[in-house]
Amino acid sequence: MLHFVPNIVVLDYLNETNTAAEDVRTKAINFLSSGYQNQLRYKRSDGAFSVWGQSYAGSTFLTAFVAKSFKIAAKYIQVDKSIVDAAFDWLVKQQQSDGRFPEVGQVFQADMQGGLRNNGFALTAYVLIAFAENKEVYRKYQSQLNKTTNFIADRLANMENPYDLSLSTYALMLTNHGKRTEFLHKLVEKSIFDRNQTERYWDSKPVDIEVAGYALLSYVAAGKLLDATPIMRWLNKQRYGLGGYPGTQETFVGLKALATFAANVTSRRNEYTVRIFYEPNGRRTFDVHMHNSFNIQELDIPNNIRKMKVEVEGIGRGFFQVAYQYYQNMQVAKPSFSITINQLNTTTEHMQQLDVCVKYIPKEAYQKSNMALVEIFLPSGLVADSDAITDKTGGIRRIERRFSDTSVVIYYDNLDPEDKCFRVTAYRRYKIALHLPSYIIVYDYYNFERFAIQKYEGKVLQLCDICEDEDCETLSCQNSSKLAIM
Question: With bands split at pLDDT 50, 70 and 90, how would you rate the model's confidence at 20?
Answer without folding.
Answer: low
